[in-house]
C-alpha cells in the first residue's frame, strides 16, 4: 500500500469508505485562495463554499476518470446513519486535465456539517473507457462508493485525499487573558 496511503488508513478512509489500493495517479484538489487539500487538513465551510479545482496529473488524454466526493460522517460522526453522503460526482474526466473537462453527474454540494468534525473524501477512479459510468446515483444520502464502483466496473481508486471540516462557529478559539 505504501506510505502515500498511511494518512488514509489513520483517518479511517481506507477501511470505512475505500478498500486498500496503490495510488497510480496524482490528484491535486485546490479550493479558493490556493487552499491545497492534503490528508487531514482542517478547513472551515466558508473556505469550501465553491467547487474546487481537481487536477489529474499523469495519465494519457485517452484515459478517463470518475471523481466522487463523499462525507462518510453524515449527519454526524457519532451516528453516521446516512453514510455516505455524496457531495459531488464528475465522470469522463480526460487524463492530464481537470474535472471541469468531465461530465458533472451530481452537482457540487457545499460541505456544511451541523455537528462534529466530518471527513470529506475525494476518490478518483480510472474508467475502462469513455462514458463508462452507466448507473449514476439517484440520491445523495446512503451513497455507497464500493457498490457504485462495483456496479460501474471502476475497480479500486487510483488516488484519494480527504480533509476535515466542522461547523463554522464550532471552531475552538483559545482565550487570552490580560
UniProtKB/TrEMBL annotation:
Superkingdom of origin: Eukaryota
GO biological process assignments: negative regulation of flower development; vegetative to reproductive phase transition of meristem
CDD domains, per the entry: PEBP_euk
PROSITE patterns: PBP (PS01220)
Any single GO CC term annotated in Swiss-Prot or TrEMBL for this entry: cytoplasm
Matches recorded under SUPFAM superfamilies: PEBP-like (SSF49777)
Family: Belongs to the phosphatidylethanolamine-binding protein family.
Protein name: CEN-like protein 2
Organism for this UniProt entry: Acorus calamus
Amino acid at each position: 500500500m505504501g506510505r502515500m496511503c498511511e494518512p488514509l488508513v489513520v483517518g479511517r478512509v481506507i477501511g470505512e469508505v475505500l478498500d486498500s489500493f496503490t495510488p497510480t495517479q496524482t490528484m491535486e484538489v485546490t479550493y479558493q485562495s490556493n487552499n491545497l487539500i492534503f490528508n487531514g487538513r482542517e478547513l472551515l465551510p466558508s473556505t469550501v463554499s465553491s467547487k474546487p479545482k481537481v487536477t489529474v496529473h499523469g495519465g494519457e488524454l485517452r484515459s478517463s476518470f470518475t471523481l466522487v466526493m463523499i462525507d462518510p460522517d453524515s449527519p454526524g460522526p457519532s451516528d453516521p446513519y446516512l453514510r455516505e453522503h455524496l457531495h459531488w460526482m464528475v465522470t469522463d474526466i480526460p487524463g492530464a486535465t481537470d474535472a471541469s473537462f468531465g461530465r458533472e453527474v451530481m452537482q457540487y454540494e457545499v460541505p456544511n456539517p451541523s455537528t462534529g468534525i466530518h471527513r470529506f473524501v475525494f476518490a478518483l477512479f480510472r474508467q475502462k473507457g469513455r462514458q463508462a459510468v452507466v448507473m449514476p446515483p439517484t440520491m445523495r444520502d446512503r451513497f455507497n462508493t464500493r457498490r457504485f464502483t462495483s456496479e460501474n466496473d471502476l475497480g479500486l481508486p487510483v488516488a484519494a485525499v480527504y480533509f476535515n471540516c466542522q461547523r463554522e462557529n464550532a471552531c475552538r478559539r483559545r482565550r487570552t487573558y490580560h
